[in-house]
Amino acid sequence: MTEFEALTDSELDELDEFLFAQMEAGRQTMLLGAAHGFYTAELCGPQPMPFSDAIDLVLGEAAFESERQHRRLRALLGRLWLEVEAQLDAGEDFEPLLHQIEGDDGQPQTLFADWCLGFIDAVENSEAWQERLASDSPPDEIGSPEQLLEQLPASVTVALTPIVTLSYRGLWEAQQMVLKEGGELDEQDALDLPAVFRDEVAELTPQQVQTMIDLIGPCVLRLDELNADWRADSDAAAQMPVRVDKIGRNDPCPCGSGRKYKKCCGAAANDPGA
Prior knowledge:
By secondary structure, this protein is an all-alpha fold. It is 59% helix and 3% strand. A two-stranded antiparallel sheet has the order 1-2. Helix 5 crosses helix 8. The two termini are 44 Å apart.
């Protein structure tokens, strides 16, 4: 495992402020919690993307004051990736990067939606994750939030259930806030949160929501275990030598021009001045 220095609170705040400002400016940037969830899904998944690509996706179209700031923000995001990787490698405890605020009742309230939505974004847009889920054999019925911990060894689908449910719960809460403030929901809201899920998450009690938040760590570690063999196969395939057939000078050019290779791309390849 690569040596790294864990991010300090001030560095996390710096990342948080930068990503939030870029998101507010409409630059397709992930918030810090979403980035942590996205990284987690990649690293505990069946085939993680290169971390440089993950950084690009988090930053989106971010605008930087200078090249130095660009390098610094990428370095901070790289260290965040390594922190997630280190927690998974340790395999003892995993803590999602969740923010807490004071609720209307004066009690602490955990903000889970960004992290969970970032995680699910990675799952939905990964061919490897989709292939892994298609191969899964989930039980016919998944139990209540209180029963999920006993079912975790069963399948990837079961281990994903708390994160998926919390994602829909977060969308539901956001939509309820819009309605409370006198706004209206549009067609996209219905696509984001289909009726079948809306009804299910609306019935969750605060205690059940907290139970699922507490399950995120164990679920992530279980997903990491369940996907370990897939990652190993992926690593082995990536290390296999690639066989490249030699193109004969008189063979048809692979570019599809219909000309012989020596009269087409082969001529350019053999011309030092090309």
